Every structure is written in C-alpha cells, then in structure tokens.
Amino acid sequence: MAQGCWSSLPADLVNRVADCLLVTNDLDYYMDLRATSHDVRFHPTRWIVLDELSGESDTRFLSRRLPLLRDYHFVTSSTGGFLVLADREPPHAARVLNAFTGSLTRFKAPMPSEMHMAAEVVGPSPTLVVLSTWGTLSADNLKFFLADPGSERFFDVGLGSSSAVSRTDDALPEFLYPVASALLVLCGVAVDLGGPGGEMLRVDRFPEQGVRLFRMNSEGRAMERVHSIGSHALFLGTFRSMSIHADVFPSVNANCIYYKKVEEEEDGSSHTYEYDLAHDKEEKIAEVNI
C-alpha cells in the first residue's frame, strides 16, 4: 500500500495493525509500517519506565506492559530499544531485555554501581557498553564500561582530557567508537551540530573556566579545541545538551553557550550564564534564587 494510503487511515486502525505485527514478532513489518506514516516516528528511541500507564496512547508512542521488570532493578534504556537491568540479588548481574520480543540476555558481570548511566548494545554477541557518571558531567567523572555475556566483570574505559576515548589497558575496538560518541551526545557530554556535514563536538565544563569545546574526529580519538560554532548556539543541561540556529531567536547570540551554574560561595543559588566562544568570556545573564 502506498504511503499516502497508510497516512489517510484512522489512527486506531493503524495502531491495531501495528499491535498485530508486534504480537507475532514481525518487527521488520512493524518498522516498515512506522515508516509509511507521517504521524509516527520512523525509529523508536528510548523507553520510559512507568509504574502505571495512564491516559490514551497514540501513534507516536508504543506502550508495552512488562511484568518481568518486577524481578529486576531497572538501570537504563538504550537507543536501540533494549532495557538494561540488574538482578535484585547480589552480585546484581547485568541483563539486557528486548522489550519488543521479550528475549532476555544474561551477563555474568555485575552491573557497575555508578549513579547516572546511558547504554548501548552492539553486535550479535552482544557487547554491552555503559557510560556512567558520578555527579557533574566532567571528564574526571565519566567512565565507559564494556562487557560480553561471558565476561566476569565490566572492563573500565576512562575519558581523558586530551582524547575522546582512551583505554587504560588496550585499545578500544574500532567498531565501538561511533557508539561511544553517540553515548556522549546522549549524556550531554558531546553535542551534534546537525545537518549533512554536522560536526560532533565534545563539551568539557569547568567550574572556574566556563566551557571548552573540542572537535571529535570520526575515530573519536584526537580532539581539537573549537573557538567558533558559527551561527549556532548551544544550551547545556544537567544531562542533556542541544544546538540551535541563533538567527531564529532574537534573544540568543550566535557562537555562544548557555548553561546554569550553582554559586557555592554564595547561597547555593543556580544562575544562568552565557559563554562567548570568540572572546573566551563568561557572563552571568540571569539570577535564579532557590
């Protein structure tokens, strides 16, 4: 059926067809169905775990009831539709659940105990790649962890200030560099300027020195300091970042980075700052009392 015909069908009918495909595990057909409709996103992204589902669902969101989750600790979700779990009993071994099919992959290695995590599942083995952080998103607080199902532990991969990804014992496998870069973007440690020739920039935050940007090459190894992002402006959140075209917003200056910073020496208030890349200058532009 042509794309226009699918788009003209009532949403409840499209949902019923999609549900039938999921029940029979016809994931290829399900993805083809999503691609024909303007009302749904082409690729499902991250899962959101809710204790209870309220409200009516629509074609933009896929809802799944997973009683199996009660037997595990939920850790995070991957961009590919996998749920990363940990056993409730020590040593809290890692598990990867395919929420579409119900398939569960068991890992021998215990899950790392860091606080904030993003993850991706790569290859047929599969390899579980976890990016974790303690506290603020600085290079010193970021670590990659890698494990295969048969691994006794997760291998620690540190982030250095002079390279995008550096392995303490041996080189990071080449096929994991794009995954590492994607996880950095997901956690707000890197930002994609977008577009066909969009650059991937590493974001380093310094409490006393503002923000520094580094250009990441395709292998994710060597990095070069960036002093201009042209007409773009960056907005940095606690665990997310975004790039916009400043000329669309009159109150936003191009080649600048916006973020909030807590003033510990004062009263712990969080203020909004603008960092001018061209002049390497940080300026407080708004005060927020907490």
From TrEMBL:
Enumerate the Pfam families for this protein: Beta-prop_KIB1-4
- Per its UniProt record, what PANTHER family does this chain match? DUF295 DOMAIN-CONTAINING PROTEIN, F-BOX DOMAIN CONTAINING PROTEIN-LIKE-RELATED
InterPro entries assigned? KIB1-4_b-propeller
Residue stretches making up the KIB1-4 beta-propeller domain: 193-267
The name under which this protein is listed is: KIB1-4 beta-propeller domain-containing protein
Please tell me the species this chain comes from: Panicum hallii
